[in-house]
From TrEMBL:
Residues 3-95 form the GST N-terminal domain. InterPro entries: Glutathione-S-Trfase_C_sf, Glutathione_S-Trfase_N, Thioredoxin-like_sf. Transmembrane segments: none annotated. It comes from Cladophialophora chaetospira. It comes from the Eukaryota. This is GST N-terminal domain-containing protein.
Length: 270
């Protein structure tokens, strides 16, 4: 019998989109071995601060999360990369043998970029808003001690990760990392162009010329979409192959199915 899991996600969370696109391309490549029930979390309106979410799903109060029964998963997976590696056990097309080491290295580099820094660069108020949302719940004297401790922990997570991500130095560092990363992708795409891809059409559709998207494609395509959506399209200038690659991917059935015509940022962002 197929195993069953729950994916907690949000439509405008880049890491959730990375996981959902991973699942979509993996399912395209082979029939499903796992059933994933999707559970939206309204992080724009404090859904991640609920007692259930903080105490029973993810103490960090972030999405995405993959949860299964104790026999399937000892603990819920609370990082998009961990979730992707876990899924790859069932979907080998995500990490083709020939490129496995390169994909792992590039995925680690991609996730070393702080997406919050690049997204909320011109919205420094965002970190304080996140703290205030927690304070509002904490102000209720009727909440349980257990829930209060969970909220205090969430506050620590926000303080440690969000405000520091928006300093000028931090943003610059992340911009440089992103630019260097995109240059690497441009070079890889240029190299793929010289050979025929697995479909024999010449020029790569996916980064390594594979027929199916790999985990790297599945995480990179949302990242490029996010850069464009937050007005950072100029980071792609001189990287025509990267842009053309992303534009091809955004036309696929899998991408359209995940995004349903949405942008990667919430309506009030822009
Ligand atoms: N490193 C984590 C990042 C998770 C994360 O920061 N998620 C954001 C959305 S992309 C979130 O849940 N934000 C709501 C909050 O922090 O309260 C991953 O790769 O999954």
């Amino acid at each position: 019998m197929a195993e069953r899991f729950t994916l907690f996600y949000n439509d405008y969370s880049i890491c959730s989109i990375m996981v959902r696109f991973t699942i979509a391309v993996a399912n395209q490549a082979q029939s499903a071995h796992v059933i994933i029930d999707e559970q939206p979390v309204d992080i724009q309106h404090g859904g991640q601060l609920s007692e259930f979410y903080l105490c029973e799903v993810n103490p960090k109060g972030t999405v995405p999360v993959l949860k299964g029964s104790k026999s399937q998963l000892e603990a819920a997976l609370t990082e998009s990369l961990e979730i992707t590696y876990f899924l790859a056990e069932q979907y080998p097309s995500l990490f083709p043998n020939r490129q496995i080491d390169q994909i792992k290295t590039l995925l680690a580099e991609l996730h070393d970029i702080n997406y919050f820094s690049l997204t909320y660069t011109h919205k420094p108020q965002r970190a304080a808003d996140m703290e205030n949302a927690v304070h509002q719940v904490l102000a209720d004297p009727k909440i349980s001690n257990h829930y209060r401790s969970a909220l205090e922990y969430k506050l620590k997570v926000i303080r440690a990760t969000r405000a520091p991500a928006l300093t000028k130095e931090m943003v610059e560092t992340q911009e440089n990392k992103a630019l260097a990363f995109l240059s690497q992708i441009e070079e890889l795409l240029a190299a793929s162009e010289t050979g025929k891809d697995e479909r024999g059409t010449g020029g790569a559709f996916w980064i390594f010329g594979t027929t199916e998207a790999t985990a790297l494609d599945a995480h990179l395509v949302p990242f490029i979409a996010r850069l464009v959506d937050v007005g950072r399209g100029s980071m792609l200038s001189g990287k025509n192959r990267v842009l053309a690659y992303a534009e091809r991917a955004w036309e696929t059935h899998d991408w359209k199915q995940v995004m349903q015509g949405r942008k990667t940022v919430y309506g009030t962002y822009l």
